[in-house]
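Side project, low priority. Logging it here so it doesn't get lost.
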Amino acid sequence: MALSLIYTNRRRFLQTGALGAAMFSAPGLFAGELVRTPTVGEGPFYPDNLPLDTDNDLLLLNDAITPAVGEITHLTGRILTATGAPVRNAFVEIWQVDNQGSYIHTGGASNEGRDSNFQGYGRFLTNSKGEYYFRTIKPVPYGVGGVSRTPHIHFGISKNGQRIFTTQMLINGHEMNESDGLFRNVKDPLARKSILVDFAPIQDSKLGELAANFDIVLGRTVEELEDGTLKGGIGKPVFQSVRRPG
């Protein structure tokens, strides 16, 4: 897909309400606050060597013309505070397995091998509305190192060079969710619901493309200063720079 078409798709999804996921009020929260997205562990397969191509289109590597295999998904969402305020200039990272169930991490290959055309990792800086956009594939289950997981996509959110939040999104209704250990560790029903995402067919798409929306509500309201930095922080910083050591 040409780069201009990718950006056209991005504008189309950000403008046509693909970001409008329903929000729920949680018991015990102040009136008008949103359900906070639960923290879900980073896992061991954050890329140990970032790919040369780290843009928000995970289906094409650099100038390659052969796309990755999988169900093409336009993934959108917003980064928000608990009161619904957008978090602008948030550094959003995603990483996931390819259609063969392999991460790009050197220790993350499945027995099926790797799709050499899948980027496996992407990043995006949120706009003034807190919005992000990725073109990727619908996640698939994997089994690496004797561990099986339900399909999911990892998210890391950073501000001012610090990781401030880590979570995962899962496919709503997938049969493996209830047996997944990390998902079972999320005890609150509304918090669980907040990380379950629908993958909806895009009408008239000749490629069978899907649309998915995942709004991330950070676990603590923060004050954003005029220069775009945050007063204080959110969560426990995991790394101090864009590239995570190890």
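Brief comment: The radius of gyration is 17 Å.
Revisit when time allows.
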